[in-house]
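Practice record 12: protein with 1,3-dihydroxyacetonephosphate.
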Amino acid sequence: MVGHCSSHPDILDLGREELEKAKQAGVLVDCHVSHCGDDMFLIMTHDRGENNTEIHKLAWDTFVKGTELAKKLKLYGAGQDLLTDAFSGNIKGAGPGSAEMEIDERPSEPIIVFMGDKTSAGAFNLPLYKMFADPFNTPGLVIGAPLHGGFSFEVQDVKEHLQVTLNAPDEIYDMLVFIGSGQRYAVKRVRHRDSGEIAACSSTDKLSMIAGRYVGKDDPTMIVRCQGNFPAVGEVLEPFTTAWTVEGWMRGSHHGPLMPVGLKDAHPSRFDGPPRLVSLGFQLANGKLIGPNDMFDDPGFDNVRQEANDIADYLRKHGPFEPHRLPLEEMEYTTMPDVAKKLADRWTPLSDEEAASTTRVQPVPAGSPPPPETEQQPR
Ligand code: 13P
């Protein structure tokens, strides 16, 4: 509401009214509108399959109407996540993050919807790894027969628009090479290996890459199915007992600790953060959303919140220095290119002596032969 801190209740009411109309019209089976920080999240169930134009348009139109109201209220950053003027058939690539899964509802279907603010796509890589591949987090991988065969991870290269599927546990070392770099590689889906069932889906939409400049952070979402063939509810929540360092926070340009909170604390204000995460648990009953339970509204997460505040204090002391501020490659979406342009003709070459002790980055013309191989010490 004030700055980037929280969502105005009128906008959330508008979202509820729009989705309720769609439910009455038979477009949705059920819906729930919630928020984390200044972001409205639309949770919808329907039987029209993934990438359905009518459902995507419903979400888009709801965000457009929310933007109109936000502009009337003169709210800050109204509609900053809507990056196209017109709807083009699918909300993907239009700004708002989305995660969808098509399931055969089980006799009991517990799901958890995660909603992040002041952080970015890729922030769920580490928690997903812990949930679905780390037996120190998920004992079910060891002692739960249905989980023992492991899970497969669909990893997207969000820069090159490629994807690869890697299996846990056999390929975890290969997988970690990539998903350890969340700015570029994001886990999109996790599946139960034996049955192929979808277990989790996260939004991997990168606002800065769509817009080519900083327009706010991605504020990702994720759906995780629990119990049975999947980790238990408590195993799905357990990764968030550590305040992992994620990208986002002030101006989307800083590393900060991810703080899991109940809805009552989901309004980040300190240095526009620290990054927040809410998790809502539902039981599905014929597509109806029974719930929610506000899962992080539990004193069991008090320690991680304290840890997040301690990390926040420590990182803030760095001011404009890395690793608090994001690395240069990420800053290319901020003021950095303009400052670099302004100073371009003030840079002068180093003296030969000084240059000799540093490496100059030489542009390699296209089609050049590869450099001769040098023998490398194993690291
Ligand atoms: P949001 O993307 O969550 O609005 O945050 C933007 C920002 O710049 C915070 O300082």
